[in-house]
Write a structure and sequence with these properties.
alpha+beta, Uridine Diphospho-n-acetylenolpyruvylglucosamine Reductase, domain 2, Alpha-Beta Plaits, seven-stranded antiparallel beta sheet, five-stranded antiparallel beta sheet, 18 helices, FAD-binding oxidoreductase, flavoprotein
Length: 473
Amino acid sequence: MSFLDNLRAIVGDTHVWAGADAAPYLTDWRERYSGRAQAVVGPGSTDEVAAVVRLCAAAGVPIVPQGGNTGLCGGATPDDSGRAIVLSLRRMNRIRAVDPRNDSMDVEAGCALQAVQEAAREAGRLFPLSLGSEGSCTIGGNLATNAGGTQVLRYGTMRELALGLEVVTASGDIWRGLRGLRKDNTGYDLRDLFIGSEGTLGIITAATLKLYPRPAATCTALVALTSIDAAVALLSLARRGFGASLTAFELMAGDCLAAVVRTFPEQRLPFDAGAATLPWHVLLELSDSESEAHARDRLETVLGEAVASDGVRDVAIASSVAQSRALWHLRESIPLAEKAAGKAVKHDISIPVSHMADFVRDTNEALQQAFPGVRHVIFGHLGDGNLHYNVAPGAGWSEASLLARQDAIFELVHTHVSRAGGSISAEHGVGQLKREALVRFKDPVELAMMHTLKRALDPHGIMNPGKVLIAHP
């Protein structure tokens, strides 16, 4: 039998797709990367994944794992060689078990994040990861990129939200590491090794996830500010006033929100014209274990103190669930408004919060000197130092002319990130987009250890080749 016939024998004829059926899997969400593949394969179980990997290992066929295909760095897109298969995990979408007493649940990698949130809610619990793409992104992809989202400030990234993993190795063995334990000190932490590896070491097929008690109430507020310095000061005040109850703290440039309102006219800013046009806004959320009245009283007290300080010009506190959702919808619509305006040069970076204001000022100035007229599209999770620092076409720039200077823009921004003691990837991963930059900005000893791990766990280099690491040195 041919290689494709053997694949069909493993997963069934209707779960090996080629031609037009495969096309949606071959281009990334941003439409920046497109590739070719022998086929797209949709296994329905971990045993089928393992059998597909063994077949590919024997034939030397590369494997590109893919979840919801919502990644932003080309990490789940095949190259142009046409040699690889895309292994889609969307059929593996079962909630295997929910254990409310242990505050944990076992889910398959193809589960949409929203389905996991709803399963936790039905059990009276909270799974706190929240992303704009939660209706289509999958748990496997969230784990592969160590996703963060809007509530990292309180709950951490996926690395903190996963207790155990089930993984198919590059040789087709199955590591059955689903454990609902908070403590397991029996050797190397393999779980953390596979989380964030973008499918380059093995394929995550299931996970044991942490659950939390649902808060009794949440309160949301949008704050208009004159500077990032004022936003950093407000963050310090909110941490002091709310402690662990501070769930989210999102920074948004005024231009970003203006773009949302232009693109989606049904959305509105809850401020008068003066405050609405201020250069910076913060969306913060407080979770409370007592009551809505208690939460609102705490929020009003702390924000009242903030308004009395310099830099804070106006505050809008949501008085209903609908108003809270509307405020969050503004924040979540920024990437959609940005996409509607055309392609930009995107940076997903982390900076020490204490250096954030200086970084933005210095990097904005350097970009304007080097590329006069470009637009700065800046928003992100200030509470954990994660900024989406994007550069878009401005006066005198076309989309094509900007993208032609992409490498130079990357170099400038990443150099400033490095000088500030930051990281060139905070939550989107490396994929294809940043693999060359990794060589430039990663500690060489750290990079050498990564190559050693890659050779040890994927000796034939079939697991998502060309992602994260350029090649075996």
